[in-house]
Amino acid sequence: MNAVLVGTALTGCHTNKQIHYFGDADLQHYHNQALAIQYPNVADPSPEEVVYSQKPRTVKEREHDEIWDLTLLEAIHTGIANNKMIRTRSGSAQLIANPTNSPSIYDPALRASGFLFGNRGVEAALADFDTQFTSSMIWGRNEQVSNSLFSSASIPPGFISTSETGQFQSQLAKTFANGGNFAVSHNWNYLGSNSPGLLFPSAYTGNLQVQYTQPLWAGSGVEYNRIAGPSRSGLGGLIGVSQGVTIARINEDISVADFESAVVTMVKDIEDLYWDLYLTYRQYDAEQANRDSALRSWREVKAKMEVGAAGGNAAAEAQARENYFETRSRVENALGSIYNTENAFRRLVGLPVNDGRIIRPADDPLRAEFTVSWESSLSEALTKRVELRRQKWQVKSLQLQEIAAENAANPQLNFVSSYQVNGFGNDLLQYDSADGVTDAGYNSAYSTLTRGDQTGWGLGLQFSVPIGLRTARAQMENIQLQLVKARAALAAQELDISHDLADAIQRIDQAYTTARTNFDRRVASERRVQATQAEYEAGVRDATLDLVLRAQASKAAAEISYFNSLIEYNKAIVELNRQRGTLLEINAISLAEGAWTAEAQDEALRRAWARSFAKPAKHMHSEPEDFSSPVPYMKNDLFPGMSVGPVPEQSPLAPSAMPAAAATAQPYEAAPTEQDIPDVGEIEDE
């Protein structure tokens, strides 16, 4: 009672009194706030890219770092090699705040190794067909008074009945691909009793039994079981139709498509940021040239003012001075833009903040005209876009689930059968069967079992059906509606992709035309500077310093506009490749699974040898039918009127099956012509 009172006092009352039992009280590990901030005891080492990174570059503290001339292909492959967590320009905040939901190279493997219901991989789905072994062994003893007024010489009043029991059960059960279940069980029951009238005071009874159950209606067939898995009742008697090996395999393909989509986004962001970095260098060069021109003009005006020459008044000198500092601030902003963009680029490709080198793009943007075939580009986009492949996997999954749902919307009719050999004996195992009581001899239970003269069998049908089948039919209608929506979504995706592809083509044409115009503007601004400077130095009446400075600023703006439009032109080409679904292919990037373990390779070789010795079965077929292909299926319904050849059975994508425009398409990059955008260095040549 004292212990109860103390416990009540501690839990039900609050007091500031210090309670001491033995030694000094140490309550530091208790907190008076349940939601106090805590920190996990995790001691994972920080990556070397963080530990050994130097301080970031700033405009104020300029350092002469080593120049790293980085090519575009090297930048892309560096980003792929460094980024186990897929980085994108828009996903940086999510990667920091919630990295669990950020895409990574581990996602397909996580999906393949899923084991929870509704998120299972192929291995977990195949586990439904694994052989199950169960076994149990239980002993017991019971003593009970016989509550009877009648008595005899063998059963006196108040007789205490004593019994000792033992149960041994073992079973091997296997579910087949057609839904049938085969089980072999071996059971023994032991009973030792002091009750009178028994043949043996202790005896063993048991059997060796074979059972087979085969669904004949709902849940039957290889096709159903590979799609939905073996029949199992879920909530409310609902039979799920999306837990089979086939659906698990499709879900893995969907996860691969999601991963590929994230990689495509990362590669596009790397290319865009690479050209943005190139543009910042060009802007810096233009602003630096403008600053140097402004400095020369300021020095010339100041020299004229000091000697009292024409055009050397104080107002002109102040204007030239102001213009110089304005151009100088632009140079500083341009340099800061280089540092900021280079830092963002380093983050995207997984490099440290500063490793003593500053990245400078080594590749020049494309200046030649990029010709595009609408027909072949549209065919490629509708064939290779990963978003369409993902949605088509969704459609195929729902098509298969519809087949399984139609099967499940039937009554349950099962064929059941069993056959058993029974055994009985005084002892479980003896060499001599003679018991001294019976002629047959039941001294050994296993001897009786092996004689096989005590058998039993069962054969019949089991039928059950919920009247109306409302749940199963609702499931079937729901999946059918999902399939209709998925097909509508696929059609909407294809329409939107065609518009996005058209926008990309228009953007390329617009950017190329603008780049040519800005190049002409650039040449004209150079000539304007030369003419204005010459007139000013010659003392022409209307030539003023203000016109010279404006001409110099206009030249810098024209230079920046030209390279800005040129970069937009190259980024438009990148966008076109993304819209066509060929961005990874153009950059020599392919997705591949990691190397198998030695055990997996040996097992695959063993199975290959086994198949090589098998005899061909002409009447066998796959259930469900093949639903995947190692190469994409071409769109044969595009551009009516084009001749499309037959598709051979061995190849779903043959040259003869391609539209004529796609089969004869020329390389997308045409040879340079006289109308190509001139190189930057041609200004000096002029």
How would you characterize the overall build of this protein?
The protein is an alpha+beta fold and 686 residues long. Among the domains are: 164 residues, no CATH class; 167 residues, no CATH class. 47% of the residues lie in helices and 13% in strands. It is built from 18 helices and eight strands. The chain has a six-stranded antiparallel sheet with strand order 2-3-4-5-7-8. A hairpin with a 5-residue loop joins strand 3 and strand 4. Helix 8 runs antiparallel to helix 11. The longest helix has 69 residues. It is elongated and about 150 Å long. The termini are far apart. The N terminus and C terminus are likely disordered.
Instruction: State the shape.
Output: elongated
Summing up helix and strand content along with how strands pair, one would put the structural category as: alpha+beta
Major sheet description: 6 strands, antiparallel
Q: Helix segment count?
A: 18
What is the radius of gyration?
42 Å
Q: Kindly, what is the distance between the CA atoms of the first and last residues, rounded to a whole number of angstroms?
A: 107 Å
Strand content: 5-15%
Which range best describes the helical content: under 10%, 10-25%, 25-40%, 40-55%, 55-70% or over 70%?
40-55%
Low-confidence stretches: 1-13, 643-686
Reading the helices and strands in chain order gives: HHEHHHHEEEEHHHEHHEHEHHHHHH
Q: How many β-strand runs?
A: 8
Global mean pLDDT:
82
Strands ordered across the widest β-sheet: 2-3-4-5-7-8
